[in-house]
Each structure stands twice: as C-alpha cells, then as structure tokens.
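pasting for the record
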Amino acid sequence: MWILFAFASALFAGLTAILAKCGVRRTDSTVATAIRTVIVLAFSWGMVFLTGAQSGLRGIGGKTLLFLILSGLATGASWLCYFRALQLGDVNKVTPVDKSGTVLTILLAFALLREPISVCKALGILLVGAGTWLMIEKKSVTKTGTANGLWLPYALGSAVFASLTAILGKLGVSGVDSNLGTAVRTGVVLVMAWTMVFVAGKGAALKAVPRGELGFICLSGLATGASWLCYYRALQEGPVSVVAPIDKLSILVTVAFSGLVFHEKLSSKAAVGLALLTGGTLVMLRG
C-alpha cells in the first residue's frame, strides 16, 4: 500500500506547484506561504481527529518530537525558498531544480538510515541526476530582455531543505501515527512561516492579497495537506530511497499543467532530461 500512497503524494504535489504559481503572481511569496500553512494545519488536524489519532499525543517521545520539530523547520525553509523561486522563475524550470533534492535524499538514506544499495538504485540515481542536470536552465530571459537567474539559488535551497525534511520526517514518524506526525510538524511550519512574515515587516501585505490569488493559495494548501498525509504514510511503511523518487514524479504533473495553464514550453534538452528523470525513478522501483 505504501507505493500507492507515494504515487498519490506525487499527484497532489504536482497540483500544488501549479496552484501555488497561480497564487503568487502579485502576492508576496512569504505571505502566501504563511496563509497556505494555515490551511494545511487545519487539514492535517482534521485528519487526526477523523482517524482518532489524537490519542497518541501523550505517547510521543522526546526523540520523536525533536525529529518532528526539525523536520518542520526544514519544511518551512524549503517552502519559503520554493515559493520565492516560483515567483521569480518559470514552473518548469524551478520544479526540476527542486526535485534534484531526490539524489541527496537517497544518498542520505543510504548513509544515515543504512538502507541497502542495489544496482538498480545506483543506476536510478545516475539517471535522475543526469535528467535533473539537463532540465536545469540557469538563465531565463525576462520581458525586458535581461537575463534573470535569481530563482536558481532559491530553488537549490528548496531542494536541500526538502531532502533534509524527508530524512528527518522518516525518523520522526517511526514511532507515531503518520497523520499525527504530519499535524505536529505542520504546527512548527506555521510558527516559522508567520514569524518570517512579521520579522520581515510584511504584515500589511496580508490585506493586499487579491481574492482570486487567495483562492489559489488555499487550494494549494489543501493539495499540500493531501500530499503530506500520503507522503508520510508511505515513509512510515516504505524505504526513503524509493518513496522520495516516486514522490518527485510530481514533476510530470507539474510540467503537463505548466504547458496547459502557463503555456511554458520544454526545450528538447529539458525533454530528454525529463525522460531520464522519469526512467531513473522507475528503475529504482525495481531495486
């Protein structure tokens, strides 16, 4: 069943990127992150009480709680970087860089979690790494004709923090219900996101959020909540080195919708990269 949850996570994560892009056209990315975290938190705790998982709150040990908090902090940092990158760059350029964290996640899973390395997984890592590299375009041309690569550092930051999120999340949900673990770590993300809003002096920007974009931000929050619940259920039952690559197949959904909604086009080089990335993920499933 964990494989089904991993693929469901990929589907919802792909939708999240598109909905989020629609929600940050004029809205500050930090403000958007804080708003959608409220939606994710409500969704997560709703699932906790729906499944009766709240009874496990007293049983959360100190070590488990620590990893959940660290995972939440890494998630918050990843989100802040990701939304800023989406605001500055095209979806089909930002997303591949963000997904490059898959390789780091797998390597950390081998090194820290002692997950076994097979020939298929090793080959898959090479294919995913090569595919991601081909899809990365360091510069884009703006409407004014100037090169703009400011989105790239933010996208790389998102990838690094996302990989740490997966490892810490695996450690954090090992001794607690996955729904409850997701809800607890979302609370940490909420505190971090709103702290960033007020520390940066962007509280006034909350009133300037267009209604249309607010709707997309809320929908992206619901999609994120669904993705998280599926992802951490898959992590609880399956190996990180396989769950993480499946989750990153969300790039197929993202690229497809970016073409339909934003009319963004893949170059031939990026198309080859996407094929390698997808093929590498499928190869790892055989390992």
